Amino acid sequence: GFLVQARDAVLSFGQTPALQGANLSARAGEILAVTGPSGSGKSTLLHCLAGILVPDSGEIWYDGRRIDTQGEPERSTMRRDHFGFVFQFGQLVPELTAEENVALPLLLAKSRRASALAEARSWFGRLGLDGLEGRRSGELSGGQAQRVALARALVSRPKVLFADEPTGALDSLTGEHVMDLLVASAREEGTTVVLVTHEPRVAAYANREVIVRDGKVTPLFVERLTS
Ligand code: ADP
Ligand code: ADP
Question: Residues in domain ABC transporter (predicted)?
């Protein structure tokens, strides 16, 4: 069975077609790489799967429920309770410390501040961030900031982690370190990962890879059995 699925998703931005009948499924626990050229519709597809955008036609399913027919308040609650997000840039709130940034999803879900911060801190050692709890984003390197963003995405133990070019702003060595941690954490937690990337080295971390061209998902090229 699958956990997330797009069926014949079509979406245009004005006259610009972004999705033209995209079909994609991710099974529970798998790490799926979505690759393809710039402008092919990868981010739009991820945003539809994550309930951020609603396609003009077609269906989006999550865990046996159709989500594209739900209203924004329902989708927003679902994103908060089930999904984590990592993007390329600008993810941390600059006014907050690293540990406050990580605690944010728990605080938004109405956890008590002390327990949210304790849970947030527990991720620092795991991601090699010891000692950085009190720093603000301006005082972190790019790789450190991206690991803090990863901790924030995982702290609420999401069922699905949506990662859109998570290493796009990092040099290749730092990017590989972040991907190692992302994949290891996701495997430990059994998180399903939908990973958008145009970098083959990043896609190589996935169990399975699909390619998007002109708003359609072409049949997969690679199935990796290592996990
Ligand atoms: P990718 O992630 O593969 O680079 P996108 O999904 O970002 O592709 O974009 C698909 C197409 O939709 C592109 O032609 C892009 O310019 C266009 N597009 C994406 N987002 C918007 C937007 N908010 N407004 C207008 N056009 C957009
Ligand atoms: P990507 O790395 O996915 O190609 P882009 O740089 O194309 O990212 O897009 C970054 C942001 O700008 C996204 O939120 C996307 O929706 C938006 N965007 C992309 N193309 C356009 C466009 N032609 N007009 C307006 N917004 C766009």
Answer: 4-225
